[in-house]
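Tutorial sheet, problem 5. The two components below are modelled jointly, 234 residues in total.
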Amino acid sequence: QVQLVESGGGVVQPGRSLRLSCAASGFTFSSYGMHWVRQAPGKGLEWVAVIWYDGSNKYYADSVKGRFTISRDNSKNTLYLQMNSLRAEDTAVYYCARDSNRPLGYCSSTSCYMDVWGQGTTVTVSS
Amino acid sequence: AIRITQSPSSLSASTGDRVTITCRASQGISSYLAWYQQKPGKAPKLLIYAASTLQSGVPSRFSGSGSGTDFTLTISCLQSEDFATYYCQQYYSYPQTFGQGTKVEIK
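Model answer (C-alpha cells):
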C-alpha cells in the first residue's frame, strides 16, 4: 500500500543541524512532487517546502528559506529535509506528504494538494 | 502570501447535527482549496480537493463548496468519528497556506 515513513527527528540544540528522511513505498516515487509540512505543539499546520518530481523546482516558506533545504533521491525513493541553524520555533512534528499530481483544473499550474501523509517525526530544538 | 481565515476556531455539536466551517482567502484562489481532517496524534487526512471534490473513501456526509475567496465545508449529519480538527488549505500558489483550524467538539 502507499506509505510514507519519516525518520531523523530528535532533540537538538539551537543553531545546530538535523536531516529528516521520508521513505516512500507503494507508488512510483519519481512521478510525484513531495512536500514537508510541520505542526508546532498545540498549533496548526504550516507548509514548509515542496520539491518537484524530478527535483527541478523547489519552493520554501519564508520562515525556513535560507536555512532548510529539501532534496530527494529517486533511486532510493527517499525525500530529505536538511535543517540548519535551527531555532526554538522550529520545534514541531514534521510530516512529509505526497503532491497529488492531478491534472490542471484540480490543481494549479504549479501547485497541488497533498493526498498521502506520513505519520510524522518530532523535532525539538532546545538547549 | 495568501492569508486564509478560517472560522469558527472551535464549535460544540451533537451527533446528528449539521456543521458548517468557512474559509476566506485574502485573494482569489479559483477552486484551489482542500480540506483536511486531523485527529489527535495523527497525520492530517485529505477530505476534499478542488473545493468540492470528495476524496475517494470519504463519506458523502462531507461536502465542500465555494470558489474565488469564500469556501465552506459541511458535515451533514455529524457522527462520533467526525469529532476532530479541520483545516482548509489553499494551493493556488506558493507558499501554500492553511487556515488556523476548527476543532469540532462534543456538546
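Marking note: The mean pLDDT of chain B is 97. Full credit if you identified this.
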